[in-house]
Design goal:
The chain is an alpha/beta fold. It has a single domain, classed as Rossmann fold (3-Layer(aba) Sandwich), CATH 3.40.50. It has 15 helices and 7 strands. The strands form 2 sheets. The chain has a 5-stranded parallel beta sheet with strand order 2-5-1-6-7, with helices on both faces. Helix 9 crosses helix 15 and helix 14 packs across helix 15. The N terminus is likely disordered.
């Protein structure tokens, strides 16, 4: 169900832009390109929008809205510290704009970042928001969404660089299939005017064509400097995350990860046992149309184990929310 709009216009008349997708699908690459435009500012990942929405009741009381308390909660999140903004500069923006709702106050935070960058327009790149399109679309009825989709087997390869094992592979497969399926369903409900799908493989093969299409969708004029993003990577990526994005220092390059060459046949079968249907739905050919009994059993056992992990994480989030009432709910597991 679409949420009722609760927005006050505190920024530019151009619509905000949200880049979403399963993590490790190329969202950072597209952010680097778009943020190289002189008119569009996209900060490091936010993650705080669904978290403050979950406790929205604490900011509204008797017909008034406590925007400064909301700013205080946002400023205490670890992700906000990567933006290089001070709470004072955000509060100055809020006091100037006088937002009277959650959406307007959050927008004021983004506007403060955009003004620090001397840019008139803001956007967001948080892959996890692929699960939150209805929320974002309701808060910002003019927002445009760009969903980046990458072959899930290459996504899994990227995750395996951060920690190996069948359990992690299966977690990646389940997360990829769930996120791409939900983002497409929610995006298609918004219609073509607001939702655009982009393939990572197309973006690295012909970046100018894809970036031009994205610019048309988000109402932004194309600038050739958007393809020369690599010169500003150190400025865009927080120091703590640069090891995750080492390839951004080079132009878009095909084949940096190739499951056909780098993934074992056993791992391919495990992945496809979980997400084979989604691979086909999103236009990727399956390598193993028939999954052997062994990988099917291992996949099922791994998914059961991952379900316990997710349940434990959800319980922890609930406990922290209940017993640390002044804190925001923790972010969801990647």
């Amino acid at each position: 169900m679409m949420l009722e709009p609760e927005r006050q216009n505190v920024g530019s008349s151009s619509p905000p832009v949200f880049i979403v997708g399963c993590p490790r699908s190329g969202t950072t690459l597209l952010r680097a390109m778009l943020a190289s435009h002189p008119d569009l500012a996209i900060p490091p990942e936010s993650h705080f929008i669904p978290r403050v929405w979950a406790v929205r009741h604490r900011y509204a009381s008797e017909g008034t809205f406590d925007a400064e308390r909301l700013v205080d909660d946002i400023a205490r999140t670890s992700r906000f510290r990567d933006w290089g903004l001070t709470k004072r500069s955000v509060l100055e923006q809020v006091r100037e704009l006088k937002p009277d709702s959650l959406a307007a106050t959050v927008e004021a935070v983004f506007v403060a970042y955009a003004r620090e960058q001397h840019k008139p327009r803001w956007g967001d790149k948080t892959p996890g928001y692929s699960l939150d399109l209805p929320l974002l679309a309701g808060l910002w009825p003019e927002a445009r969404f760009v969903h980046i989709i990458r072959d899930g087997r290459d996504v899994a390869l990227s995750f395996l660089e951060l920690g190996s094992g069948a359990r992690r592979l299966l977690e990646a497969a389940a997360a990829w299939s769930n996120r791409v399926r939900k983002a497409r369903a929610d995006g298609m409900a918004l219609g073509d005017e607001r939702y655009l799908e982009v393939r990572y493989e197309d973006m690295v093969a012909d970046p100018e064509r894809v970036v031009r299409a994205v610019c048309r969708h988000i109402r932004l004029d194309f600038r050739p400097q958007m393809l020369d993003y690599s010169t500003g990577v150190d400025r865009l990526i927080p120091k703590s995350e640069r090891h995750l994005h080492r390839n951004l220092a080079r132009p878009p390059t095909k084949g940096l990860r190739d499951w056909r060459l780098q993934m074992s046949s056993t791992d391919v079968q495990l992945f496809e046992a979980v997400a084979g249907a989604e691979l086909v739905e999103f236009g990727y050919e399956r390598a193993a149309p028939a999954i052997a009994a062994g990988p099917r059993v291992r996949a099922y056992a791994g998914l059961v184990g991952n379900a316990f992990t997710r349940a434990s994480w959800a319980t922890r989030r609930w406990a922290l929310t209940k017993f640390k009432a002044e804190s925001l709910p923790p972010p969801r597991r990647w």
